[in-house]
Each structure stands twice: as C-alpha cells, then as structure tokens.
C-alpha cells in the first residue's frame, strides 16, 4: 500500500506543479524550445488524453464520471490484488495509471473553480472559446464544477515531412511525429499501460482474473 501511495503522490505533485506553473506563466498557445525536438507548449484540452475530446458541457460531465468510475474501480482492484499478493509488475504500472487518472480528473473537476480564466464552451456556437493573457489562481473561477479544462504542455515534434503528391487522400500534406501535446498525467497512464502490455505474463501470471 505504501508503494501505491508514494507513486501516486509523486506523480500528482509533478503533474499538478507543472500544470499550475504553465497556466500561470504561459499564455494560451505560447511555446518555448527546450531542445529542437522538445518544446513546452501551452494548450488546454477539454477532453481526454492527447487532445481527444467529444461533445460540449455534456461531454465534459460524462468524461468526469468515467474518470471517477475508473479511479474507484482501480481502488477496488488494488484491494483485491494486494490481498492476493500481486507482483510489482502489476502494482507499479497500475499505480501510474491511477495517478494519471486522478491528475486529469483534478483539472476537469476543479480548475474551472480555482483559476480566473480558461477555455470555455459556448453553447450558442458549439465551440470551445480560448482566452487571452495569463491565468491567476482565484478570482471567482471561469467555469462550473467538472467543466474545467486539462492543461497540456509536453510537445515532441521529433520529425516532420510532406507526403508525396501521389499518395491518395494525403498527398502534399505535412506529417509530424509526434503532434499531440500532453502532460505528466497522460505520460503516467501511457507508461503504465505499456509496462503492463510488455510484462503482461508477469503482471498476470495466472491470467486475467477480475
């Protein structure tokens, strides 16, 4: 149990500290080159990991409920796995996934309440509306409970090229890897899932048993 708590708290601290710093020191859309292949680029994401989202306010509520269900489900499974003496090949990556889910859940649930400005959904036009300037903690909030946006900032444009014109459908367009901007919570979820896939036989020596 201590290992789960330590991993979760460490990931959450790094995740939230980086998000709060970016949101209070970067204007929306601003980027800084760390290396040629790595940038800090501030975007706000109203949906899921790596920029994916769906719907407007209703989609936000639905996504928050899914994240809450995921967190509760993992807690239930942790109790089961610890009782069964599960190995670190399962406990460690699931702790990363657990922390990542909580990290993005915090943004969606509370950032609209604790920051004075943020990206908001305009139902009359059916679009998310960006904002200008730096955000500050406090100030009455910019959105209701569960309607805050997730802060993303990690951008790795490793390479790009233009597709040959003869390629059907995409010829002449630019391809960039890796285009999505993400955060520490997204990274924790991705790394945790990758570890489980790579070491699935050690994580589940007796097969999947829920």
Automatic annotation (TrEMBL):
It catalyses: Release of signal peptides from bacterial membrane prolipoproteins. Hydrolyzes -Xaa-Yaa-Zaa-|-(S,diacylglyceryl)Cys-, in which Xaa is hydrophobic (preferably Leu), and Yaa (Ala or Ser) and Zaa (Gly or Ala) have small, neutral side chains. InterPro entries: Peptidase_A8. The gene is lspA. One of its GO terms (molecular function) is aspartic-type endopeptidase activity. Keywords: Aspartyl protease, Cell membrane, Hydrolase, Lipoprotein, Membrane, Protease, Transmembrane, Transmembrane helix. This is Lipoprotein signal peptidase. It is a multi-pass membrane protein. This protein specifically catalyzes the removal of signal peptides from prolipoproteins. It is an enzyme of class 3 (hydrolase).
């Amino acid at each position: 149990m201590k290992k789960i708590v330590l991993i979760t708290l460490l990931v959450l601290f790094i995740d939230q500290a980086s998000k709060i710093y970016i949101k209070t020191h970067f204007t929306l859309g601003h980027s800084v080159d760390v290396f040629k292949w790595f940038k800090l680029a501030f975007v706000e994401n109203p949906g899921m990991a790596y920029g994916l989202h769906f719907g407007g306010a209703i989609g936000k509520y639905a996504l928050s409920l899914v994240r809450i269900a995921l967190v509760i489900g993992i807690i239930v499974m942790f109790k089961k796995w610890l009782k069964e003496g599960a190995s670190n090949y399962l406990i460690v990556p699931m702790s990363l996934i657990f922390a990542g889910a909580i990290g993005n859940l915090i943004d969606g649930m509370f950032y609209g309440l604790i920051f004075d400005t943020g990206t908001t959904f305009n139902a009359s036009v059916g679009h998310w509306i960006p904002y200008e300037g730096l955000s500050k903690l406090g100030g009455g909030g910019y959105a209701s409970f569960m309607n805050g946006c997730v802060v993303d900032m990690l951008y790795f444009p490793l390479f790009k090229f233009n597709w040959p014109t003869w390629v059907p459908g995409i010829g002449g367009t630019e391809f960039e890897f890796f285009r999505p901007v993400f955060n520490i919570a997204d990274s924790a979820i991705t790394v945790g899932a990758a570890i489980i896939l790579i070491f699935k036989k050690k994580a589940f020596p007796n097969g999947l048993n829920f």
